[in-house]
Structure formats: C-alpha cells, structure tokens
Amino acid sequence: MQYVSQLLSGNIVTDLTKALNGEYNAIHFYEHLARLAPNDEIRNRILEIRKDEMRHYHGFSYIFTCLTGQQPSPQITEALPTDFKNGVITAFHDEQDAVEFYHRVARETNIPYVSNEFRSNASDEQNHAVWFLYFMNHH
After folding, report:
1. Alpha-carbon span 17 to 81, nearest angstrom
2. I need a labelling partner for 96 at 20 to 30 A (CA). Which of 1, 87, 107, 111 fits?
C-alpha cells in the first residue's frame, strides 16, 4: 500500500489524464487531417502517425488503469481543422507541446516504467513534429 501511495504522489494521475486527452484528441484530429491531405503519400504518413498516437493512448491508458483502478474517460477538446495547412500548423504545435510535457513528466516521476513510457512517447512526438514541419514547408 505504501508503494501505491508513492506511485500516486505528485501529479501523475493529473499528468496521465492530460496525456490521455492529448492522445485521444490527436487520434481524432489526424483521422480528419488525413482526409484533407493533398496526396496519398502524405495521407499515409499521417495515418502512420495516428497509429503511434493510438499506441501511446493504449500505453497511458494501461498505466492510468493500473494506478487508479478505473478506465480513463478522455474528452475531445480540440476543434477539427477546416483545411490542411492550418491543420498541419496546429498538429506541429501540439506535437512540440507534447514533447516538452512528456519530457517534464518523465523527469519528475519516480516510477521507472512511467518515466520510460513518457520518454519513449516524447521521442515519437518529436519525430511527428518533424514530419508536420516538413508538410508545412513543402505542401
């Protein structure tokens, strides 16, 4: 029991909730953005990024459920893009924000498994941001 209270110390449940909402929103946002893509190559890359976001969501969901005994109930908070260019700009900023947030959580948590999950996902998010930056500058 002492270990559980140590696990729940700090803001880890709050941070996981924020991460889950971000991933959940990204999954829906990228599904829509892929429909707006100018060609199949970009559409397929966005759908691959979406698969990463789904994997992140499931990983964070597993941790959340283990720590709280409850299933997460994420909320859609982000409007869907009306055009590809604005959607890509939004996606780039969201990915960069996620990188910073995930790195902070990874540094602050005293739970190695959780720290590793956030650190690994931060790496993926940085890769996604590079793709969106490329789309911003070349399409």
Report:
1. 23
2. 111
CA–CA separation, 94 and 27 (whole Å): 12
The pLDDT tens digits for 80-137 are 999 999 999 999 999 999 999 999 999 999 999 999 999 999 999 999 999 999 999 9
The candidate with the shortest Cα–Cα distance to 22, out of 85, 92, 75, 73, is 75
pTM of the predicted model over 0.85: yes
The residue segments making up the domain with residue 83 are 2-138
Q: Which residues have C-beta within 8 Å of that of residue 112, sequence separation ≥ 6?
A: none
- What CATH number does residue 134 fall under? 1.20.1260.10
Amino acid letter for position 49 = I
Q: Assess contact for 108 and 10: CB atoms under 8 A.
A: yes
Please count the structural domains in the chain.
1
Helices (H), the chain: 2-7, 12-36, 40-68, 84-108, 112-138
